[in-house]
Known about the structure:
This protein is 77% helix and 0% strand. With 267 residues, it is mainly alpha-helical. The chain has one domain.
Amino acid sequence: xxxxxxxxxxxxxxxxxxxxxxxxxxxxxxxxxxxxxxxxxxxxxxxxxxxxxxxxxxxxxxxxxxxxxxxxxxxxxxxxxxxxxxxxxxxxxxxxxxxxxxxxxxxxxxxxxxxxxxxxxxxxxxxxxxxxxxxxxxxxxxxxxxxxxxxxxxxxxxxxxxxxxxxxxxxxxxxxxxxxxxxxxxxxxxxxxxxxxxxxxxxxxxxxxxxxxxxxxxxxxxxxxxxxxxxxxxxxxxxxxxxxxxxxxxxxxxxxxxxxxxxxxxx
Length: 267
């Protein structure tokens, strides 16, 4: 089928997924409570014990990391939603319709962008309340948010592939937790790079979550000239490094997910 047909069918599927926000508002409530909880928890509980250095306010240092963590965790809704549709037989109903098979994946990943947008808005408002500010202007701020959404969109295709492999929502939740937790916590999202031992620091510097976090801090103006720039190329060029990861993930996991969907829906 043509790309136009795929995108059109994908938008219809996305609308179907977004209707759940209205019909099951509890889903949205829990999606939005999580980022608020993390911002307040790290700002007021751990903030007094962590010094990012360079005279930088920890709350400004923190919010970029919380943004990155939340959009990565938000991408798991793609996998969970597909696993649920497979379990309930919704995918079998889609097979009987004259629609592009890849439209189901396009619609699911697209609708989850809306969840991430809402999460970012809530986090930004919560961040403003605890003292976070975007100091580089509106254009750079919007560029930071756009980079977060693009990165989350790429991660959602990984979750889509995993969601089509596993038999239930419970399994995808556990599997995604095992993958995402090390990526988000073994990064510069919550503590400065200097706090990691030398061997682990190399992993942190090249961790894509660290890159998107650093990129957001720079675009939001939440950095300090007194903090030395890391030697790693990934940390010196975090925006470019993040975009490279986005391209790699999409090139690998979009065809893998489409192939796995065809295999799963043909059983």
